[in-house]
Every structure is written in C-alpha cells, then in structure tokens.
C-alpha cells in the first residue's frame, strides 16, 4: 500500500543530523537543490515493497561517511522489540569500562529472572553463575530475554534509560525489562497481570497463541475471561504498543547506531567488542541481511514480538581495490539501516524487511555517486 511520506522526505530531500551540521550559505530561491540520486531510487523501491506488504514499514538509511540520510515513515514512533537490547549492551559495556563489571564477572541466575523467548540461558537451573560475556552473547547474538533481564538487573534500568536519553532521544525513551513487557501487555487485559511471576510467563508461552493464551491467563489470574478489559490478545498488544514504551523513531534509533559506529558511545575496545557481537547475530538471516550483497558486513540487532518485526544495524561495505598501482586504498562505506514492520505476522514481515535490504542495495547508496539536481527552481516572474 502507498504511504504518505513527510513533507521533507516526499521529495527525497537530504537530511543532515544536527550534530554534524556545518554552516553553509543559503540556497538562492531560483537554484535547484541537489539531493543524492540513491534517495530517489530508494523512495520508489520502498513504495513498491510497502504496496506488497499487508502492514506498514518504516525505514531510515544514513550513509555515515557522506552524511546523507533518507527517511520513509522513520519519524513515527516504532516499537523496537529486542532492539532495546543494544542500549542495554551499551550500558553494560560502560559499566565494564568503569571497572564495575568485567566480561568474566559472574552473575547468579535467579528464579525471578526467567522470561520466555530464545537463547540458552533458560536451560540453566536457578543458582547457576553465568559470565557477563556469556550473557552479552546470548542477549545480542541469540536475542535471549532472560540474559537481557539479568544484565539489566546488574546495571540497573535507570542506567539503561540514561543511555537511551543520551544516544536515542533526550525527550524520553522508556525501556523496561523484558519481563515487564509481558506484564504490561497482559495487563491491558487485566491489571492483576502486573503480579505475574516468571513461572507464569513461561506457562503462558507454552500454552500457545491467541485465545488459548487468553484462557491460560484467566486461569493464572483466577478470573473469568469475561472479566478481561479487551476481547483478545491482538487488542491487548495493540493497546500496549500505543503506550510507546520500548519505542522510538527510527531516525532517533539510527542516531544511536551512528554514535556507536563512530566510536562516540563507547571506547575503542568496547565498540569493537559490541559490533563484533552484532555482526554474529543469528536471528535475522531472512531480513535485511538477505537483501544485502554477500560482501557487506551487517552488525545489527533484530526484534520480534506480536505483529512487530525489526532489523536495525550498520552495514559496512569494503572498498574496491585501487585502480592504479601504488594508490592508497579507499575506506569502507558505513551505512546505518534501521527498519521495522508492523501489522502482519513474522513471516510476511521478514519478507518485507528482505525487500528493504534489496531496495537499499539497488538504490546505489553503497556506490560513490554525486548528488544530482532534482528539485526544479521556482518560476520567478519578470
């Protein structure tokens, strides 16, 4: 379905991050405004991908080295799902840099830490002491929710939200534990869900989806389904998403990824460590990465929840070999790509995100190309 872009983006205008903006002379009113040609191609391709998708997509692309940006509904708030694990990781790495933790520090797995989801942490019994390095790998590479909540407990949710306020959006991004995501979503059905225990969350996951889970929730809360405030799970999650917890614009999230790539979020060693983890993510082979050239290194984090799917990362393209003997090699190109899909199941959303990756590749953003005049000058009466 065709989407209406913001006024600034409807003409594929060049966006420049405020922190990078340099003074420039005003453009005369009769002069055409040059914009990157790849933005025009990407706009058309994303409209086509959006038309094929039953829900909505949002995309933000920022070529860091040329400081060229493009937004497709990226200024709207998007639910990030496990995309919030990147600011969690930054908070943990900062604690390591301060000497409060180390990669070898062992954290004790508690009965209250267990959350449904992927990863290997739930295979360990309560009382197991797990290293921070293991938990970081489980959280980023395998998107492990229990590992995430253990790390949030170690650094404190206030520090995670301080990272979000600094690097994503100063006006406020509320990040919660992964267990509280479930409690808040189920709480849209009944306020007693705020007291769900870890064992209850695991039981709800095992009960299945849809009305089977609604019935299980009623059983756990000792209420009747008729007592619920909303009719079904879909309504509950949509009401939860409307609170904008664990949400941000893709433009703002892309700003955090740019800071990470530029070494502004962490020191050099911590930056390399986290980007290496993100380059080994195993949960997104069918998303943006599937549409990128094989030679591109994509350091990213995926996010998946009820009718919400994201893929957010930094694509690094190795430069071509020098054409002349003795010439200095060019630097690799770095491009932030942040995309989310909503309103459809995971399989359809993954296809849409694969199409986003293919559209970015075909747009020519990875190729050095000059901007071209695309905005016609206004007609000035004699």
Topology:
Elements: H1 7-10, E1 33-36, H2 37-52, E2 56-63, E3 68-72, E4 77-79, H3 85-97, E5 106-108, E6 129-131, H4 132-141, H5 145-155, H6 157-167, H7 178-187, H8 198-206, H9 211-221, H10 233-241, E7 247-249, H11 250-261, H12 268-279, H13 288-291, E8 297-305, E9 308-317, E10 333-342, H14 346-363, E11 371-375
Antiparallel strand pairs: 1-11, 2-3, 2-10, 4-7, 5-6, 8-9, 9-10
Helix pairs in contact: 2-14, 3-5, 3-6, 4-5, 7-10, 8-9
Report the count of strand segments. 11
Strand content: 15-25%
Low-confidence stretches: 1-24, 376-382
- Structural class comes to alpha+beta
Helix content: 25-40%
Radius of gyration: 22 Å
Distance between the termini: 43 Å
**Order of SSEs, N→C?**
HEHEEEHEEHHHHHHHEHHHEEEHE
Main sheet summary = 5 strands, antiparallel
Q: What average pLDDT do the residues reach?
A: 89
Q: Helix segment count? A: 14
What overall form do the CA principal axes indicate? globular
**Taking strands numbered 1, 2, ... along the chain, how are they ordered across the largest sheet?**
3-2-10-9-8
Which keywords apply here?
single chain; 382 residues; alpha+beta; 5-stranded antiparallel beta sheet; two-stranded antiparallel sheet; 14 helices; 39% helix; 16% strand; globular; disordered N terminus
């Amino acid at each position: 379905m065709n989407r209406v872009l913001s006024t600034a983006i409807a003409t594929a205008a060049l966006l420049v991050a405020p922190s990078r903006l340099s003074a420039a002379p005003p453009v005369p009113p009769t002069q055409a405004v040059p914009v990157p040609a790849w933005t025009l191609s990407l706009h058309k391709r994303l409209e086509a991908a959006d038309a094929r998708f039953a829900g909505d997509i949002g995309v933000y692309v920022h070529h860091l080295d040329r400081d060229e940006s493009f937004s497709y509904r990226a200024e709207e708030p998007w639910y990030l799902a496990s995309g919030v694990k990147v600011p969690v990781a930054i908070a943990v790495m900062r604690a390591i840099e301060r000497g409060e933790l180390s990669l070898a520090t062992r954290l004790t797995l508690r009965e209250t830490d267990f959350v449904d989801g992927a990863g290997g942490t739930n295979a360990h019994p309560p009382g197991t002491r797990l290293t921070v390095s293991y938990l970081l790998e489980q959280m980023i590479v395998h998107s492990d929710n229990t590992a995430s909540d253990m790390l949030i407990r170690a650094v404190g949710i206030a520090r995670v939200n301080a990272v979000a306020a600094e690097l994503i959006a100063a006006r406020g991004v509320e990040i919660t534990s992964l267990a509280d995501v479930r409690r808040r979503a189920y709480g849209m059905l009944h306020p007693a869900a705020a007291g769900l225990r870890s064992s209850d969350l695991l039981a709800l996951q095992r009960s299945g989806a849809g009305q089977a889970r609604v019935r299980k929730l009623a059983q756990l809360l000792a209420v009747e389904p008729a007592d619920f405030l909303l009719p079904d799970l879909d309504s509950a999650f949509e009401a939860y998403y409307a609170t904008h917890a664990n949400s941000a614009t893709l433009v703002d999230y892309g700003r955090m990824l740019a800071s990470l790539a530029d070494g502004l979020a962490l020191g050099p060693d911590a930056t390399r460590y986290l980007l290496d983890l993100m380059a080994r993510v195993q949960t997104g082979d069918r998303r943006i990465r599937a549409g990128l050239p094989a030679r591109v290194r994509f350091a990213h984090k995926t996010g998946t929840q009820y009718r919400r799917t994201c893929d957010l990362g930094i694509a690094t393209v190795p430069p071509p070999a020098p054409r002349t003997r003795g010439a200095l090699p060019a630097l690799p190109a770095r491009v932030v790509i942040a995309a989310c899909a909503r309103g459809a199941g995971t399989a359809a959303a993954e296809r849409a995100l694969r199409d986003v990756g293919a559209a970015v590749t075909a747009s020519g953003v990875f190729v050095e190309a000059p901007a071209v005049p695309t905005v016609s000058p206004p007609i000035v009466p004699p």
